[in-house]
Specification:
The protein is an alpha/beta fold. It contains 18 helices and 5 strands. The protein binds flavin-adenine dinucleotide.
Length: 455
C-alpha cells in the first residue's frame, strides 16, 4: 500500500477534518505528522506553550501515532516523505501570508522529488477569496461581506472517513509522540476540551444572552472559543451547524454570535486578497499621519504594555493580557485606541505586543482589528472615533468589578468610582500610578493630526 503524510498545522483535531478524510480515502496508509517549527515556537511566547498542549492532546487522540519532528518544514516534510516513501502530503489549505509562503516552498521541494502537496479545506467556514461581489471584487466593508457570506452558507461538517489505514512502518529514530513537555499551560487544550467549551457555552445559556451581555468584560459572557479556533481544535463549520440544528438557539444571541464569527472570516478574506496588509496600512489615506517616537514615547508604550497608564480600564485590560494571554474584545478596542490615539503610536507596535501575548494571536483578526481601531483598515470612516477610557469603562464595567479584579491598587475604591481615581480623595493611597497623559488633550491632538492628513 502506498503512503501519504497528513501534516497537521492550524487543524489540531480529528473530527470534521476534510484533509484527513481526503488522505484516508485516497486508498493510502496515512502517517500523521506535526512539525515543531522554531519560527513559531519562540519559547517566551505563551502561545508556544498553548500550541504544544494542543499537539500533545492531538497525539493522545491519535493513540501515539503522531510523528513530531523539529525543524524547518521545507526540510522536514520532504525528508520524512522520502523516508517512508510517501507520494502525497495532505494539508488543510493555509491562507495567511506566512503559511502560503511556507506551503509554496514545501510544495516546490516535494515537487522536485516527484511528490505532491494536496490542500483540502481551510480553517474557515467559507474559503478566503470565495465570497466576492457580483462583479467578482473582494469586499472591503464588513456588513455587505457578512450578508454575502451568510447567503453563501457553510458546508455541513465532514463525516469521519469510512476507514483509516494508519501507517505502521518504521519512522526512524525519532519517537512518534515526541511532544516536548508542557509545564506551564493549565487550561484545557485539544479537541475534546474545545468541544466541551462550546457545549458549556450553549448549555449555560450564554449563547441566548450573548447579544445582551457580550460587551461586558466584568461578566463571563463570551465563548473564549478564539483560542480553540486558533489551533483548529474546533472548526467554525461545526459551530455553525450546531446553531442551525437547534431551533431554540436561533435567538438574537445566536445571530449576533454568528455575525462575530463572520468578522473572523472577513479579516481572513481581506488578508487573503491583500497579504501586504498584515503589517502595512490597508488604506493609503493615513499613510502620512505623523506618529510619535523617541525615548519619551518608548516610556509611554512601556507603561501601556505593563498596564500602568493611570487609566484603570486600560490598565486592567493590559494586565489581563499579560496574566491570561486573553483579553475581552471591548478591552482590545479600548486599549488599542489608547495606544494609537492617546499616545499617537503606530498600530503595528501594539499589534506586535498583542501577538506576543495573546493565546489566540491571529495575524488576520489581530492586525485587522488593530487597523480597524487605528482607522487605517476596513472601517469606512473611523478616524474621528476616539474611545474615551472613562466613558467606555462606565458603560461596559458599570460596577467597576472588572477593574478591581485586575488592578489591586484600586481594590478599596467602591463601585464605578474606580474608573476615576483622580476624583477620589483616597484614589492613589495604594500606589496606583497617575495618568500618563490627559485624554481630552490627546483626543484633540489626534483629531487635529487626522484632519491635517485628510485635507
Ligand atoms: P466571542 O465573543 O465568543 O466570539 C466568538 C468568536 O467570533 C471568537 O472566538 C472569534 O473567533 C470571533 N470574533 C469575535 N469578535 C471578533 C472580531 N472583532 N474580529 C474577528 N473575530 C471575532 N481575535 C482573535 O481570534 N485573535 C486575535 O489575535 C485578535 N486580536 C484582536 C485585536 C484587536 C485590536 C481587536 C479589536 C480584536 C481582536 N480579535 C482577535 C477579535 C476579538 O477580540 C476576539 O476574537 C474575541 O475577543 C475572542 O473572545 P471570544 O472567543 O470569547 O469571542
Amino acid at each position: 500500500m502506498t503512503v501519504s503524510l497528513l501534516w497537521f498545522r492550524r487543524d489540531l483535531r480529528i473530527s470534521d477534518h476534510p484533509a484527513l478524510v481526503a488522505a484516508a480515502e485516497a486508498g493510502t496508509s496515512v502517517l500523521p505528522v506535526f512539525v515543531l517549527d522554531p519560527r513559531l515556537l519562540t519559547p517566551e511566547r505563551p502561545r508556544a506553550r498553548r500550541l504544544l498542549a494542543s499537539v500533545r492532546a492531538l497525539a493522545d487522540s491519535l493513540d501515539g501515532r503522531l510523528v513530531v519532528r523539529a525543524g524547518d518544514p521545507v526540510d522536514v516534510i520532504p525528508g520524512l516523505a522520502r523516508e517512508v516513501g510517501a507520494d502525497t502530503v495532505h494539508v488543510t489549505r493555509e491562507t495567511t501570508p506566512f503559511g502560503r509562503r511556507r506551503d509554496a516552498a514545501v510544495g516546490a521541494a516535494l515537487g522536485r522529488d516527484g511528490r505532491r502537496l494536496i490542500p483540502t479545506g481551510t480553517p474557515y467556514a467559507a474559503e478566503p477569496g470565495l465570497v466576492v461581489t457580483q462583479s467578482g471584487e473582494p469586499y472591503r466593508v464588513f456588513t455587505p461581506f457578512a450578508r454575502a457570506w451568510g447567503a453563501h452558507g457553510s458546508p455541513p461538517p465532514v463525516p469521519p472517513p469510512r476507514r483509516i489505514s494508519w501507517f505502521d512502518g518504521d519512522v526512524g529514530p525519532v519517537a512518534r509522540a515526541g511532544v516536548p513537555a508542557v509545564d506551564a499551560y493549565g487550561g484545557g487544550a485539544g479537541e475534546l476540551a474545545a468541544r466541551q467549551q462550546w457545549i458549556d457555552f450553549l448549555a449555560d445559556g450564554r449563547l441566548g444572552r450573548y447579544d445582551h451581555d457580550r460587551d461586558r468584560p466584568d461578566l463571563d459572557a463570551t465563548s473564549r472559543l478564539s483560542i480553540p479556533l486558533k489551533y483548529g481544535e474546533i472548526h467554525p463549520r461545526t459551530i455553525l451547524a450546531d446553531i442551525a440544528s437547534h431551533p431554540e438557539d436561533r435567538t438574537s444571541g445566536a445571530a449576533r454570535f454568528v455575525s462575530e464569527l463572520a468578522w473572523r472570516e472577513f479579516y481572513a478574506d481581506v488578508l487573503w486578497h491583500r497579504p501586504d496588509s498584515a503589517w502595512r496600512d490597508l488604506r493609503p489615506e493615513l499613510t502620512h499621519l505623523p506618529y510619535d517616537a523617541g525615548p519619551e514615547t518608548d516610556r509611554l508604550v512601556e507603561a501601556w504594555r505593563q498596564g500602568r497608564t493611570g487609566y484603570p480600564i486600560v490598565d486592567a485590560g493590559m494586565r489581563q493580557l499579560l496574566a491570561e494571554g486573553w483579553m475581552h474584545n471591548r478591552l482590545r478596542m479600548v486599549t488599542a485606541s489608547f495606544l494609537t490615539k492617546d499616545l499617537h503610536v503606530w498600530w503595528p507596535i501594539g499589534a506586535r505586543h498583542f501577538l506576543d501575548h495573546l493565546l489566540d494571536g491571529d495575524i488576520a483578526s489581530n492586525n485587522h482589528g488593530w487597523q480597524w481601531v487605528a482607522g487605517t483598515g476596513t472601517d469606512a470612516a473611523p478616524y474621528f472615533r476616539v474611545f474615551s477610557p472613562v466613558r467606555q469603562a462606565r458603560r461596559f464595567d458599570p460596577l467597576g468589578d472588572y477593574v478591581r479584579r485586575w488592578v489591586p491598587e484600586l481594590g478599596h475604591v467602591p463601585g464605578a468610582a474606580v474608573h476615576e481615581p483622580w476624583s477620589q480623595p483616597n484614589g492613589y493611597d495604594h500606589g496606583y500610578p497617575r495618568r500618563v497623559v490627559d485624554h481630552d488633550d490627546e483626543r484633540r491632538e489626534a483629531l487635529a493630526r487626522y484632519r491635517q492628513v485628510r485635507r
